[in-house]
């Protein structure tokens, strides 16, 4: 049906439009580069990344962690990355004992050390359990990176670096988050195990 074909095309067009906005935003491109190099530096110094999100953003956290630990473009040693969304025993214990809002904060407190990187993913920028984790990052001097939508929400003031996708549409934001995650993985991999960008 032609109407469905047009509907499909409109989704692609909307997704492309958001990515084109990112491409035209020099400051945003430079921020993504800065975050990728900060992440690279953390890995070179023996630290790890921790990632968290809810729903689709939880899937993105797991996806990015998988790229770090396994491989991205080429074979190389795995690098340490933990998705704080995957261990059902830990998640249900914290949820039961401390509440859903503490789901990631408790894990960052237990697993994180000064010099690690926490990547919090929230399309609204207002997910309470991410906000609480960011507060722990401040206390422990863990570098915090946020992936959010256009406003940045409450995360904008709590993250060391907040990458705001220029959209208010959840699917379009998530599509850009995974592209940004892939770019960070690719730069880290090339800088540590490839020829680098010099």
Strands, total number? 5
Structural class, judged by helices and strands? alpha/beta
Give the low-pLDDT segments: none
Counted by DSSP, the helix tally is 8
What is the succession of H and E elements?
A: HHEHEHHEHEHEH
| Rg, Cα atoms, Å | 17 Å
CATH topology: Rossmann fold
- Terminal residue distance: 51 Å
Largest sheet strand order: 2-1-3-4-5
Q: What's the average pLDDT?
A: 97
Q: Find the CATH superfamily.
A: Glucose-6-phosphate isomerase like protein, domain 1
Please tell me the CATH architecture by its name.
Answer: 3-Layer(aba) Sandwich
Please report which band the strand proportion falls in: under 5%, 5-15%, 15-25%, 25-35%, 35-45% or over 45%.
5-15%
Reading off the top of the CATH hierarchy, the class is best stated as: Alpha Beta
Largest sheet: 5 strands, parallel
Helix content percent band: 55-70%
Shape verdict: globular
Assembly type of the chains comes to single chain
């Amino acid at each position: 049906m032609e109407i469905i074909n047009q509907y499909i095309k409109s989704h692609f067009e909307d997704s492309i439009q958001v990515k084109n906005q990112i491409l035209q935003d020099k400051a945003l491109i430079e921020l993504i580069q800065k975050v990728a190099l900060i992440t690279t530096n953390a890995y070179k110094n023996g630290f790890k990344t921790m990632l968290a999100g809810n729903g689709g953003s939880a899937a993105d956290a797991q996806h990015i962690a998988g790229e770090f630990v396994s491989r991205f473009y080429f074979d190389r040693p795995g690098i340490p990355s933990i998705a704080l969304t995957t261990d059902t025993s830990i998640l249900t214990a914290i949820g039961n004992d401390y509440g859903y809002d503490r789901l990631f904060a408790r894990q960052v407190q237990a697993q994180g050390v000064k010099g690690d990187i926490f990547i919090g993913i929230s399309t609204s920028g207002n997910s309470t359990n991410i906000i609480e984790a960011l507060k722990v990052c401040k206390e422990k001097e863990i570098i915090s990176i946020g992936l959010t939508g256009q406003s940045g929400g409450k995360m904008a003031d709590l993250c060391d670096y907040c990458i705001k996708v220029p959209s208010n549409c959840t699917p379009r934001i998530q599509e850009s988050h995974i592209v940004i995650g892939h770019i960070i993985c690719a730069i880290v991999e090339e800088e540590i195990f490839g020829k680098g960008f010099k």
